[in-house]
Automatic annotation (TrEMBL):
<dbReference type="InterPro" id="IPR020471">
    <property type="entry name" value="AKR"/>
</dbReference>
<dbReference type="Pfam" id="PF00248">
    <property type="entry name" value="Aldo_ket_red"/>
</dbReference>
<protein>
    <submittedName>
        <fullName>Aldo/keto reductase</fullName>
    </submittedName>
</protein>
<dbReference type="InterPro" id="IPR053135">
    <property type="entry name" value="AKR2_Oxidoreductase"/>
</dbReference>
<feature type="domain" description="NADP-dependent oxidoreductase">
    <location>
        <begin position="16"/>
        <end position="213"/>
    </location>
</feature>
<dbReference type="InterPro" id="IPR023210">
    <property type="entry name" value="NADP_OxRdtase_dom"/>
</dbReference>
<dbReference type="InterPro" id="IPR036812">
    <property type="entry name" value="NAD(P)_OxRdtase_dom_sf"/>
</dbReference>
Length: 256
């Protein structure tokens, strides 16, 4: 698996990352089919498969139900073998999302993530946007609190998981990395990826397979892997076969 720098953070991530929302939440999702949460054995087998493929990047969040708790309890290998990216600002409770970007709420969220994941540091924490990105200044106090937590050693990098071009561009100067949506049916945020590359920021891509609706997953992943500035592509799955296929799709042509 190709490893890429996460901007200037000093962190190297696998080009393919594993999204873990399906480890902990199956309500309020946009996937084409319903699914049951996997048992512990299935989670461990998938994580072991990821490790065997060279995947070190794991994406989770407090809004992903019990994903963080399960990773904390079941993650194989050494902590330093993995790059764990979590988020702050969104919680999923009672069937709906709740958002709070007050600095104290962000700090409390980080400490809860550390507890659930059974670790003393997170590799990155991203502000989990509510979509009102154009009013970008409203996120700055939260971003400053994340920066303070980074100085305290609680996290290695700060980030912003946005939903608009304006939001991503606005937060570019206030975080170490951005998470953007990109797939063949949604290329709107390409300018954010390009701007981040020029600024030396890391870029993680979400929605690469359009939440399971991509017509040609391999082609979608190959396209994104070829974009200058992309550090990692986060794709969620519960299937070891799909994980292997996704890993093959991001390999250089000569390695297939």
């Amino acid at each position: 698996m190709e490893m890429r720098p996460l901007g200037r953070t000093g962190i190297s991530v696998s080009l393919l990352g594993l999204g873990t929302v399906k480890f902990g939440r199956n309500a309020g999702m946009k996937y084409p089919r319903d699914f049951d949460l996997p048992d512990d054995g299935a989670v461990i087998a998938l994580l072991e498969e990821a490790r065997a493929l060279g995947v070190n990047l794991l994406d989770t969040a407090p809004a992903y139900g019990v994903s963080e708790q399960r990773l904390g309890a079941l993650l194989p290998g050494r902590r330093e073998d993995w790059v764990i990216v979590s988020k702050a600002g969104e919680w999923f409770e009672g069937g709906q999302s709740r958002f709070d970007f007050a600095p104290d709420a962000i700090e409390a969220s980080v400490h809860e993530s550390l507890r659930r994941l059974r670790t003393d540091y997170l590799d990155a924490v991203l502000l989990h946007s509510d979509g009102e990105d154009e009013a970008g200044d409203r996120f700055l106090p939260a971003a400053e609190r994340l920066e303070r937590l980074k100085r305290q050693g609680k996290l290695r990098a700060t980030g912003f998981s946005g939903k608009t071009v304006a939001g991503g561009l606005h937060m570019l100067d206030h975080t170490d990395l951005l998470m953007v949506s990109y797939n063949p049916g949604h290329r709107d945020e390409a300018p954010v990826i390009a701007a981040a590359a020029r600024a030396g920021r890391g870029v993680l891509v979400k929605k690469a397979l359009a939440s399971g609706h991509a017509a040609d997953p391999a082609a979608a992943l190959a396209e994104i892997a070829g974009l200058p500035g992309v550090s990692g592509i986060v794709v969620g799955t519960l299937s070891r076969e799909n994980l292997r296929a996704n890993a093959a799709a991001v390999m250089p042509q000569g390695g297939r």
